[in-house]
Design brief:
- There is one protein chain.
- This protein is of the alpha/beta class.
- The protein has one domain: Spore Coat Polysaccharide Biosynthesis Protein SpsA, Chain A, CATH 3.90.550.10.
- Helices cover 42% and strands 21% of the residues.
- It has 11 helices and 12 strands.
- The strands form 2 sheets. Strands 1, 2, 3, 4, 5, 6, 7, 9, 11 and 12 form a 10-stranded mixed β-sheet that branches. The chain has a two-stranded antiparallel ribbon with strand order 8-10.
- α9 packs parallel to α10 and α10 packs antiparallel against α11.
- The longest helix has 19 residues.
């Protein structure tokens, strides 16, 4: 079974478009067994009413608070799988895996439109490559141009390029963790560090072994952390260019822009602390502190 999880906050019209495109694709190209869950984080724009009226097949989890992307997705994943994660006992883990109700879980943003065939393309790739724990599609901007949606894991080079103005000419380069645009234009999948969180297809077995998203991240860097934990556990991550998803980007976060920069750097500091080697971590944290973040 495929489970699609969408966490939404005050983006009713975008969510309608997302679900419409998703169900068209599920009907024509996806497995016969699929379910869609929307976690609504206390929207005030009528989102729950929209779902009840126009998409009764959706499992709605209407939360009383704005719990955000990480906690919202974890809430749904806990509900559908009811697993104990990071088990050390082999027999317990084997029993837990046998209880999985999903084969794949697709975390999808509400500000996306699923292009025809995208779901089937991603699932077919995952089934053909059992070593892959997570994959993502090609993301497109509303005008059809490429949106970078797959990246190498961030290192010190990316940190300095992002914060030193004179290094700006290196942005969107390999030094900045980007892959060549030509790679997204050809049909051949390629290995990546991590996909953008707007559209991540995860193998349920990988989820059971690695665990949920880290709720220490309010937003930003949570997909990087998740993919890094998968990499450390031996799971591959891939981009599947033939699958395409349009992504508007920032529709929910722009509503709280006054605090997003602060949260961004809190998340980056957490990632540095968890995944950088001691000297690299020392340099990164000192540099961020010097910048005043």
């Amino acid at each position: 079974m495929l489970t699609v999880i969408i966490v939404s906050w005050n983006v009713r019209d975008l969510l309608r478009g997302c679900l419409t495109s998703l169900f068209v694709d599920l009907a024509s190209a996806a497995p016969s067994s699929a379910r869609v869950i929307v976690v609504d984080s206390a929207s005030t724009d009528g989102t729950p009413d929209l779902l009840r009226a126009e998409f009764p097949q959706v499992r709605l989890i209407a939360h009383a608070d704005n719990i955000g992307f990480v906690k919202g997705n974890n809430l749904a994943m806990r509900e559908i799988e009811n697993l104990k994660f990071k088990m050390q006992d082999g027999a317990a883990l084997k029993a837990s895996l046998s209880a999985l109700t999903s084969e794949f879980i697709w975390l999808l943003n509400p500000d996306t439109l699923v292009k025809p065939g995208a779901t089937r393309t991603l699932i077919d790739f995952m089934r053909a490559r059992p070593e892959c724990g997570m994959c993502g599609p090609t993301l497109c901007n509303p005008d059809g141009s490429l949106q970078h949606g797959a990246f190498a894991f961030p290192g010190l080079a990316q940190l300095f390029i992002d914060t030193v103005p004179c290094l700006g000419r290196w942005r969107n380069s390999r030094w900045d963790g980007r892959y060549p645009p030509a790679w997204f234009e050809r049909p051949t999948p390629f290995q990546i560090g991590f996909p953008l969180g707007a559209a991540m297809l995860v193998r349920a077995q990988t989820l059971a072994e690695v665990g949920l998203l880290d709720e220490g991240y309010e937003m930003y860097s949570e997909e990087v952390d998740w993919a890094k934990r998968m990499a450390d556990a031996g799971w591959e991550r891939w981009c599947v260019p033939a699958a395409k998803v349009l992504h508007y980007g920032g529709a929910s976060t722009s509503q709280a822009s006054a605090r997003t920069k602060r949260i961004l750097w809190q998340s980056r500091r957490r990632y540095f602390g968890k995944h950088y080697a001691p000297f690299k971590r020392w340099v990164a944290l000192r540099w961020v502190k010097w910048l005043g973040y």
